[in-house]
Design goal:
Blueprint (H helix, E strand, L loop, with lengths): L1 E10 L2 E8 L8 E5 L6 H13 L24 E8 L2 E8 L2 E4 L6 E4 L2 E7 L5 E6 L3 H12 L3 H7 L1 E2 L6 H4 L2 H12 L2 H34 L5 H60 L2 H17 L3 H49 L2 H17 L1 H54 L3 H69 L29 H46 L7 H72 L8 H70 L5 H7 L3 H31 L8 H63 L9 H24 L4 E5 L14 E5 L4 E4 L5 H22 L7 E5 L7 H16 L3 E5 L3 H6 L3 E5 L6 E5 L5
Parallel strand pairs: 3-15, 3-16, 10-14, 14-15
Antiparallel strand pairs: 1-2, 1-4, 4-5, 5-8, 6-7, 8-9, 11-12, 12-13, 16-17
Helix pairs in contact: 5-19, 6-18, 7-17, 7-18, 8-17, 9-15, 10-15, 11-14, 12-13, 12-14, 13-18, 19-20
């Protein structure tokens, strides 16, 4: 950053407007700010720092305390600074909060603090407005541009009076903050944080895994893994015994249920027969109503034959009524038309009377026409005045609108700034929403999987039950096949023995035992079994055995699946924690809430971008309006003068004309009214004559309509008499005594269809009930009702016994499967824990080293900054050696700090006179100034060399040279001159007379009773 121009108004000791054009000092100048004590030399540095950050260099006075007491009350306190940075020029202006006179009336009002920031064109004109008014926005923009906050700016670019030792004596953590900003070493800090986060995550995972292993044993109600093995081995024979007892009880239960079910079927048949008999009795109760419905249908059929005569009579009555209505309407219309004709006669007489005024109106019309020409010139002048006044009001309104719009833009900018702060705070509050949503969505998926496992568990239990039943059946079939095969083989052997006995002879040895005596030879008994039959029975036995083994494998597979399912179920419940007990809807609601927060975060992020874009648009609009207003004000004044001139000419002409002839437009309007009155009266006379003729025509037409309606009424009466005679004749020939009997016998189609359906449904249902009763009588003729309570008691007892044996077997088998699952889970958990511990040995070691938790407690970033600090100290020591005549050098302390205090960036001074290193705090005032100056210059060199994004092109030094002897002063000036030749601007504030002699380019600050002033002196640099 290089200052270009500084303007101070009513600031500090400067009562008026004082401007310092740094371009007059030359390119990269070395200059002196000179003046008596209290004149305002340090206030120049205060103004620079205040313009950039809204703070003074010492930060001991606020902006509100920097108003000049000698300044005129109407002059605002403000500071403006033009500066150059990385190829672009900027202008920043600040106004502190202060009291100022009211624009209207007496007293004062509070002027709010404000700040503006512009980019500048190549000619120094204001270009784009970056900040319209907001102080906080200006602070943020300036800090972003320079890369330094106010405190860091004071430590590396401005050495204020009494503050030059701060950077030299700063603690390691403060120096780390400054250097990390200057050298942009935040990437190493992010590496530290990433390693620390990774190590912490692995450490938490290891601890969680250990708790998981303890939880596995606790969930299985086990004290240790040896207890697990002991209990698992003891359960195996108990499970087999319990299974055998369950199979026996199951067989008994099936037999008892079969007997009970057969009896229930027989009992239902007896109950169905009794229900049918009751239904038939209830159905026969409706027989009387059905007979009455049949008679009603017959009467309706007879009444249907008289419908044509009745219909003709009704139509004749309707025609007579319609004719009467038409005749009444025609009579009423004729009466109304008589009244309208009388009204038309009266209207014609009134129009004739008004037409008698037409001659007088035509005479008035002629007189007004003569005045119009006389007022033509006045009208033209009035039109020119109105046009000029409209132009004046238009440009004045445009000016006021632009001024109001400028104020509106300012308020919008403030509102956007406030809105941005709110959105950024909300964005920070919602920062964790996406990660929380992802975590809850994982929990939701796990919770859905848990419900799926619950359903699968129920299905597996049913499958296990079916597999057990199938295994029992296969076991019975295998036993029966084995027994049958053995019986067949024994019978085959008996048949072979009988055949062999037939070959025995007396005193001949037995071919089997060799005995000569045969007391009981075998004989044939029953059917003889062949070898083929034996082999067939053995094949059937082998098939039954294979089927049994398949059923056993299927049951074992289901048991294994059930154990794995239980293990998965337990794992998911442990992962879900308390969410496992909550309904899925609660977790869904939590996910939905977090999803809304994540969506809100995206909307807030978009809103922030939109607000930034809107603020940039307002800045550009504000700059354009500001330039427009500067050109509008002269045009408004010119339009006002032209309108006033035309108004004066119009008034002179108006006074020369009669009062009633000054306005041609008014005369034309009066003339138009007269013309309209004349035309209206002529038109009224013609319309009244035509209205009377039309009314007389309509009256004649109404008389004709009444005559026709009367004739139609007479014809309809004759037709009604004829229809009544035909109806009475038909009724007399029918079986009905009168019209009432005929009406009672009539049925509409819906009622007739309903009665017919009721009769048919009754007869159909009666036939069905009689057929079903005959069938049940035939089936149950030789059957007796069963004893259901006794059979149900036997079935319930067998079922209870089976359930008891099943519960016993399931409890033992479940416990054994649980223990097997725990064994597998523990084996996997031990393997996973070993992997996590191996990972932690790697990441934990890297994290401890990078975060400075071992050895000298130096973090990775501080180690990198230490290397950079070494480079700074090399440059600084070269200058300090020269200023101290070879005595002092700046070095980095090698001994670590004690305790938990972070170290690695502490400074010592190497004293060649004693050969020892000692703290920099032990240096005297002059020595401290030399060391601080050398450190600032060395830091500037290294930052420029590393190009860390921050340019230290300027250095201001406030006092300190008075503490140097002549030799050290000469060395300091030589160093600053060398630095100047390297392209730096260096400003020195000092009372030392030798500096004034050696530095011809200077800014003189003069004090007076009316306030201080500044003046640039000396030869300009080429």
């Amino acid at each position: 950053m290089t200052p270009l121009a500084l303007t101070m108004q009513a600031f500090g000791p400067f009562a008026a407007v004082e401007t310092i054009d740094f371009a007059q000092l030359g390119k990269s100048p070395l200059f002196l700010i000179n003046g008596p004590t209290g004149a305002g030399k340090s206030s120049i540095l205060d103004a620079i720092c205040f313009a950039l950050y809204g703070q003074t260099t010492g930060d001991e006075r606020s902006g509100t305390q920097m108003r000049c007491d000698q300044a005129d009350a109407s002059l605002l306190t403000e500071v403006s600074l033009d500066f150059y940075l990385r190829g672009s020029a900027y202008r920043v202006r600040r106004v502190p909060q202060q009291e100022r006179p009211k624009a209207r009336g007496e007293g004062t009002t509070t002027q709010s603090a404000e700040a503006q920031l512009w980019t500048l064109t190549a000619t120094g004109e204001e270009d784009e407005c970056l900040v319209a008014r907001s102080v906080s926005d200006a602070n943020t923009q300036v800090q972003t541009l320079l890369g330094l906050d106010a405190s860091q700016f004071r430590q590396v670019m401005v050495l204020p009076q009494g503050k030059f030792r701060e950077l030299l004596l700063a603690e390691s953590k403060d120096r780390e903050k400054i250097f990390s900003q200057l050298f942009q070493t935040h990437i190493f800090q992010r590496i530290e944080e990433r390693l620390r986060t990774q190590a912490n995550q692995i450490e938490r995972a290891v601890n969680d895994h250990r708790q998981h292993i303890r939880g596995i044993l606790t969930g299985g109600a086990l004290e240790s893994e040896p207890a697990l093995e002991q209990e698992w081995q003891a359960l195996t024979p108990q499970v087999a015994s319990a299974l055998q007892a369950f199979e026996v009880a199951q067989q008994r239960r099936r037999q008892a249920e079969k007997r009970r079910n057969d009896a229930q079927a027989l009992q239902r048949q007896f109950e169905a027969r009794e229900a049918l008999a009751a239904d038939k009795a209830r159905h026969l109760e409706q027989q009387g109503a059905i007979a009455q419905s049949q008679r009603r249908l017959e009467q309706a059929a007879r009444a249907q034959a008289l419908h044509p005569q009745q219909t003709a009579l009704l139509q004749a009555k309707e025609a007579r009524t319609s004719a009467q209505t038409e005749q009444h309407q025609a009579q009423a219309g004729l009466t109304a038309q008589h009244a309208q004709t009388q009204h038309a006669v009266k209207a014609l007489e009134a129009a004739r009377q008004r037409s008698e005024e037409l001659p007088a109106l035509r005479e008035r019309h002629r007189q007004l026409g003569e005045f119009i020409h006389q007022g033509q010139q006045l009208s033209e002048l009035q039109a020119r005045f109105v046009h000029a006044q409209s132009a004046w009001q238009q440009v004045d309104g445009a000016l006021k609108r632009d001024e109001a719009q400028l104020e509106s833009i300012r308020k919008q900018g403030e509102a956007i700034g406030t809105r941005l702060e709110q959105l950024q705070q909300e964005f920070q509050r919602l920062a964790s929403a996406p990660s929380a949503l992802e975590r809850h969505e994982q929990l939701y998926a796990q919770r859905q999987e848990l419900e799926k496992l619950d359903r699968q568990g129920q299905e597996l239990a049913v499958q296990q039950q079916r597999a057990s039943e199938a295994l029992d059946q296969r076991q019975d079939e295998a036993t029966q096949a084995e027994r049958y095969a053995t019986e067949q083989e024994m019978r085959w052997h008996q048949g072979q023995a009988a055949a062999l006995a037939l070959t025995l002879a007396y005193q001949a040895p037995c071919p089997v035992c060799g005995s000569l005596e045969h007391p009981s030879p075998a004989t044939e008994g029953g059917d003889v079994v062949t070898q083929a039959q034996v082999e067939k029975a053995r094949a059937a036995q082998e098939t039954a055995r294979q089927t049994l083994e398949k059923a056993q494998r299927q049951q074992a597979q289901l048991a294994q699946q059930f154990g794995y399912h239980r293990e998965q179920h337990q794992r998911l419940r442990q992962q879900l924690g308390t969410w496992a007990e909550q309904p899925l809807s609660a977790l869904d609601s939590a996910c939905e809430s977090l999803r809304e927060q994540a969506q809100r975060r995206l909307r807030v992020e978009r809103d922030i971008a939109e607000q930034h874009a809107a603020r940039e648009g307002l800045r550009r609009e504000w700059g354009a309006l500001d330039r427009t207003l500067k050109t509008q004000r002269p045009a408004v004044e010119k339009a006002r003068e032209e309108a006033l001139r035309l108004e004066s000419q119009r008034d002179q002409l108006s006074q020369a004309l009669p009062e009633d002839a000054r306005d041609p437009d008014a005369l034309r309007r009066t003339l138009g009214v007269l013309e309209q009155q004349i035309a209206t009266r002529e038109k009224e006379w013609e319309q009244a004559r035509q209205a009377l003729a039309d009314s007389q025509t309509r009256q004649a037409r109404a008389e004709e309509q009444l005559s026709g309606a009367t004739q139609r009424l007479e014809r309809s009466g004759q037709a009604l008499e004829m229809a009544q005679a035909e109806w009475q004749a038909a009724l007399a020939q029918s079986p009905f005594e009168d019209e009432a009997a005929f009406g009672a016998a009539q049925l509409d189609d819906a009622a007739r269809q309903s009665l017919t359906a009721q009769v048919e449904a009754y007869q159909r249902r009666l036939a069905e009930l009689e057929g079903a009763l005959q069938n049940y009588h035939a089936q149950l003729a030789e059957q007796a009702p069963p004893d259901m309570p006794a059979l149900k008691a036997l079935s319930d007892a067998a079922q209870a016994e089976e359930q008891a044996r099943l519960d016993e077997w399931r409890a033992l088998d479940s416990r054994r499967n649980t223990l097997e699952g725990i064994r597998r889970t523990l084996a996997a958990a031990h393997a996973a824990q070993a992997e996590l511990e191996a990972d932690y040995r790697l990441w934990g070691t890297l994290s401890e080293i990078a975060n400075g938790r071992t050895g000298h407690r130096i973090s990775l970033q501080r180690f990198v900054l230490g290397v950079l600090l070494d480079d700074v100290l090399i440059q600084a020591s070269e200058r300090l050696v020269r200023m101290s005549r070879g005595r002092y050098q700046l070095v980095r302390r090698e001994d670590p700090s004690k305790g938990n205090k972070a170290s690695g960036l502490e400074l010592d001074v190497a004293d060649t006179y004693t050969g020892k290193n000692r703290p920099v705090a032990t240096l005297s005032g002059g020595e401290s100034f030399m060391a601080a100056l050398a450190l600032a210059l060395g830091l500037s060199d290294v930052v420029q060399a590393y190009a860390g994004g921050i340019q230290l092109d300027t250095l201001f030094i406030d006092e300190g040279f008075g503490s140097l002897d002549q030799d050290a002063l000469d060395q300091a000036i030589n160093m600053l001159s060398e630095l100047q030749m390297g392209g730096r601007m260096i400003g020195i504030i000092s009372h030392v007379s030798e500096l004034k002699e050696q530095m011809p380019v200077r800014i003189e600050v003069r004090a007076s009773r009316q306030g201080s002033t500044v003046q640039v002196q000396g030869v300009l640099a080429p």
